[in-house]
Amino acid sequence: MKTTETSRGDARPKKLRTQVRSKRMKAEHAKYDAFTTVLCRKRDEFGQGFQVMLANKINTYPSYISEVVNGKRAGSEHLRRAIASALGESYEKMIAWGTWILEGKNPDEFTWAPEESEAENIRRKLDELQAGYNKLEEKLNEILATRKKK
After folding, report:
1. Lower CB density within 10 Å: C or N end of the chain?
2. CA angle 40, 115, 23 (to 5 degrees)
3. pLDDT tens per residue across span 32-50
4. Cα(85)–Cα(83) distance, rounded to whole angstroms?
5. How far, in Å, CA of 57 to CA of 44, rounded?
C-alpha cells in the first residue's frame, strides 16, 4: 500500500488515515444525533418561543438555533455545550440521555449519575469562579475606598 506523508507528518497509508477520520466522524455524528434528540424533546416541552429563548441566552441568531434543532446544521461542540448550559443541563448528560432515547428506552426512566471525575471537574471550575469573583470584589472595594477618601 502506498504511503504518502501529509503536511502533519502522518506517514500512515491514506486508506488507514481515512478510516481513522471516519471513526471520529461517526462518533461525532452519534453525539450530535443524541444531542439533537434531547434538544427536540426540550423544544416540544417548552413550546413556542424555545429557539428565540435559546438564541437570546447564548447570544446568537434564532435561525441558527433553528437549523441546529432541525438537523440542518450540526453546530460546533462549543455551541452545543452553550445550548446545554442555557437549558440548565450538562452536555454530557444530554448526550447520555439522547443515546438512551435512541436505544429505544423510555426517556422518562433515564437517570443521570455523573462520573466522579466530572463532579470533581465541576467543583474545581466552581472554586476557580469563586476565587475570581472574590478577587473582583476585593478590587471593587479598593476602588470604592479610594473614591471615598477623595
Report:
1. C
2. 60
3. 788 888 888 888 888 888 8
4. 5
5. 18
- Classify the C-alpha dihedral 122-101-26-29 as positive or negative: negative
pTM, rounded to two decimals: 0.57
Beta bridge partners of 3: 13
pLDDT digits (tens, 9 = 90+) for 105-134: 888 888 776 665 677 778 878 888 888 888
H helix count then E strand count, the chain? 6, 0
| Count of C-beta atoms within a 10 Å radius of residue 136 | 10
Distance (Å, whole) CA 60 – CA 81: 14
What is the rounded CA–CA span in Å between residue 2 and residue 126? 51
How far is residue 35's CA from residue 100's CA, in Å, rounded to a whole number?
11
What the block records as the C-alpha cell of 69 is: 434543532
Q: Cβ–Cβ contacts within 10 Å for residue 66, how many?
A: 17
Which class in CATH covers the domain with range 1-112?
A: mainly alpha
Cell 452519534 belongs to which residue? 30
* Alpha-carbon distances, residue 118 vs 27, 103, 114, 137 (angstroms): 20, 24, 6, 28
